[in-house]
Amino acid sequence: MITDGHGTPLAVLLTGGNRNDVTQLIPLLDAIPPVRGRVGRPRRKPDSLFADRGYDHDIYRGQVRDRGIVPAIARRGTRHGTGLGTYRWVVERTFAWLHGFRRLRIRWERRADIHEAFLKLACCLITQRQLDSLC
Predict the structure, then answer these.
(1) Which residues touch 104 (CB under 8 Å, ≥6 apart)?
(2) From CA 58, how far away is CA 63, in angstroms rounded?
(3) For residues 6 and 88, what is the distance between their CA atoms, to the nearest angstrom?
């Protein structure tokens, strides 16, 4: 799952629970939808990617750079130093919000497209709740 800096989901990739996260990094980056806003062609990729030490592999760093994204991935055994951790537990908090929807807590749907539709609906509701709390 790719979130903005405050936990709002931007892109979600549905995979099996037994898949290693780092192997799904590149498909997740490719799943980012166009971001509308300014006049002109919509942005399709972020400027940089912040990741924890679980993604510390030179192969994936190179693949991220090949897509024109600057990787800020912590090296194992060193301090990160990029400010990652200023907002703690963003992904875990987002998963907790998603688990608030009973249908997503355990995957009952056999078809991935139906499960993904419920997941996107839940993301819309989470975003609406966050916006309502700001107003």
Answers:
(1) 98, 115, 118, 119, 122
(2) 9
(3) 10
Kindly report whether the global pTM for this prediction surpasses the value 0.85: no
CA distance 36 to 63: 25
Instruction: Name beta bridge partners: 48.
Output: 70
Could you tell me the two tokens for 17? 């629970």
Residue range(s) defining the domain that contains residue 60: 2-134
Looking at residue 77, what is its pLDDT?
77
* Spatial separation of the C-alpha atoms in residues 124 and 8, rounded to whole Å: 9
CA 61 to mean position of chain CA atoms: 17
Structural domain count of the chain: 1
Residues in Cβ contact with 50 at an 8 Å cutoff, skipping those fewer than 6 apart: 72, 73, 82, 84
**Strand, coil or helix: 84:** coil
Mean pLDDT split into 10-residue runs, the chain, 135 residues: 54 62 79 75 78 81 89 76 63 82 81 86 90 86
pLDDT of residue 58: 86
